[in-house]
Automatic annotation (TrEMBL):
It comes from Pseudophaeobacter arcticus. Residues 1-23 form the signal peptide. Keywords: Signal. It comes from the Bacteria. This is YHS domain-containing (Seleno)protein.
Length: 157
């Protein structure tokens, strides 16, 4: 019964967050239910050196998005300093941001550079991005100010 209640609570939270996440703007790459990073634990990259799926039972909401965690310890670390663990460019693809576009970041293609988590779209894109990380980060930072609040599809017109 407790498992069912936890599942129901997680679903209810996700549904409740959908409207808030969509209304918050487009600078964050979250699902239509408000789930950030496809449910991956943002802290695990820094503490475990690898992506880890978070649990629907261990969540917190930050900037109208729901983050999941692999442990209560990770959740506590995130809540103490969320900005330290959030991916750059709202979780959108770092290479895409460098090109002035917003593509979904895949949490399994990642790298931490100067204590910042970057996600990329695919293995090929990750490899290309790694060929000039400082240049692509500089380009992405320059573009981000102009594209953060624009719908991804509008950037491709």
């Amino acid at each position: 019964m407790n498992t069912f209640k936890s599942l129901l609570s997680g679903v209810a939270l996700s549904v409740a967050m959908a409207t808030s996440a969509l209304a918050a703007g487009v600078e964050l790459n979250a699902s239509s239910t408000g789930l950030a990073m496809q449910g991956y634990d943002p802290v695990a990259y820094f503490t475990d050196g690898a992506p880890a799926k978070g649990s629907y039972k261990i969540t917190t909401v930050f900037n109208d998005a729901t983050y999941r965690f692999a442990s209560e310890e990770h959740k506590a670390q995130f809540e103490a300093n969320p900005e330290a663990y959030l991916p750059a460019y709202g979780g959108y693809c770092a290479f895409g941001a460098a090109m002035g576009f917003k593509f979904d970041g895949d949490p399994t293609y990642w790298k931490i550079v100067d204590n910042t988590l970057y996600l990329n779209l695919s293995k090929d894109i990750q490899e290309r991005w790694e060929g000039n990380i400082p240049g692509f980060v500089q380009d992405a930072n320059g573009h981000w100010a102009n594209i953060a609040d624009i719908e991804p599809a509008a950037l491709q017109q």
